[in-house]
Write a structure and sequence with these properties.
- This protein is of the alpha+beta class.
- The chain has a single domain, classed as tt1808, chain A (Alpha-Beta Complex), CATH 3.90.1570.
- It is about 25% helix and about 30% strand.
- The strands form 3 sheets. Strands 3-6-8-9-10-11 form a 6-stranded mixed beta sheet. Strands 2-1-5-4-7 form a 5-stranded mixed beta sheet, covered by helices on one side. It has a two-stranded antiparallel sheet with strand order 12-13.
- Strand 4 and strand 5 form a beta hairpin.
- The relative contact order is 0.15.
Length: about 190
């Protein structure tokens, strides 16, 4: 019995394929992983977060990007699509296509049943290798629950979490606030 191995692709091959593809895929260490579509709750939460952050950052030197901008984690060989990214200062891109970002300050991921363990674990581990990355927000889409990680001195991360609709997240890296009432506005929760 022989095991059939997936052929490895280079980052350059992945980018060439991805730029022509109709559907998004992630890349990690030579393998390509197809991404599934998002639920209405997921899309609405992303829209709410982007709207809130854009309004607060409109006159400041930070930019909000949503789902379709690829992120490269150089040290790890990971190319991924985060739900929301905020860059403070000049955005840095991987090449002249300007479709692969290198310097996020804040990353927001909306959790699904199929991605929550990856987003909390291996993906977060890779994100922490990005020097500019200092704040991470994980938002449940099936219930009210938000996890908020902030980089501390000595490369330690402080976690706070809430499920209280009256709470507000203080996003210190970008001097913004996100109220849970706004994150979950018009979102029909499953639980």
């Amino acid at each position: 019995m022989s095991l059939e191995l997936k052929p490895r692709v280079t980052p350059e091959e992945y980018l060439a394929l991805e730029r022509k593809a109709e559907r998004k895929s992630e890349y990690f260490k030579g393998e390509i992983f197809a991404m599934s579509g998002a639920s209405p709750q997921h899309v609405l939460i992303v829209t709410n977060v982007v709207a809130e952050l854009r309004g607060q950052l409109k006159t400041r030197p930070c930019t909000v990007y949503s789902t379709d901008l690829r992120l490269k984690v150089s040290a790890a060989g990971l190319y991924t699509y985060s739900d929301v990214i905020v860059v403070c200062g000049e955005p840095q891109f991987d090449d002249d296509h300007k479709d692969t970002l290198l310097n996020p300050t804040l990353i927001v991921e909306v959790l699904s049943e199929s991605t929550k363990d990856y987003d909390r674990g291996a993906k977060f581990e890779q994100y922490r290798k990005i020097e500019s990355f200092v704040e991470y927000v994980l938002i449940a889409q099936d219930k009210r629950h938000v996890e908020h990680f902030v980089r501390q001195a000595g490369n330690r991360w402080l976690l706070s979490e809430t499920n209280r609709l009256e709470d507000t997240l203080e996003l210190t890296s970008i001097a913004c606030n996100l109220m849970l009432t706004e994150i979950y506005d018009k979102v029909e929760l499953l639980i």
